[in-house]
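To illustrate the input format used throughout this study, we show a single complete record. The first block contains the structure-token representation of the backbone; no residue identities are included at this stage. The design step must infer an amino acid for every position from geometry alone.
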């Protein structure tokens, strides 16, 4: 738990662990939409504010055209098979998808609280941004951990440099740790 106004850095969650947890939560009626949120977040790399704007119609169409909340840049996002398959198990009332059992849209605070409960790590700071980082790590690792992949992630995340993306994904710190551990 962080102190109010303190600066903390969200840590990533292993993609497979997050995917399995999302699927597990979708099996429980009261947690279904939250589980779906996790699946969408780790498969899109979007910020929480952008995810919460996705509607039932967007999922039915298979894509969303929008302007990112933070950067104001336009973006088209096509939903992958994992998202479409998970969406088939969601029962939406109206166009809102990410709603609580009281049919109110989740807030960022609710999601962050729930994530801390679901992913209880002793040495990791978990928040909605952890899922964005999980997406980035999965893309990086699945595509050969090359600079070409970092260039693409830098564009996807709208970072100003590859160095920022590398730091964002905790790649440099892990490489340094590996050097010390392999002596």
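Output of the design step:
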């Amino acid at each position: 738990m962080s102190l109010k106004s303190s600066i903390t850095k969200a840590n990533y969650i292993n993609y497979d662990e997050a995917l399995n947890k999302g699927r597990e939560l979708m099996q429980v009626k009261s947690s279904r939409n939250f589980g779906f949120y996790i699946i969408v977040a780790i498969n899109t790399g979007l910020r929480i504010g952008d995810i919460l704007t996705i509607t039932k119609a967007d999922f039915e169409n298979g894509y969303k055209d929008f302007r990112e909340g933070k950067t104001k840049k336009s973006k088209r996002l096509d939903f992958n098979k994992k998202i479409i398959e998970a969406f088939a198990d969601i029962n939406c009332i109206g166009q809102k998808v990410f709603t609580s059992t009281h049919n109110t849209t989740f807030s960022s605070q609710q999601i962050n609280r729930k994530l801390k409960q679901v992913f209880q790590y002793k040495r990791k700071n978990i928040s909605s941004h952890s899922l964005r980082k999980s997406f980035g790590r999965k893309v990086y690792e699945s595509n050969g951990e090359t600079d070409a992949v970092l260039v693409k992630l830098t564009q996807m995340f709208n970072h100003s440099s590859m160095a920022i993306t590398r730091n964002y994904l905790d790649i440099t710190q892990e490489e340094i740790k590996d050097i010390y551990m392999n002596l």
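Structural context for interpreting the output: The chain has a mean pLDDT of 90. The beta strands are 63-67, 74-78.
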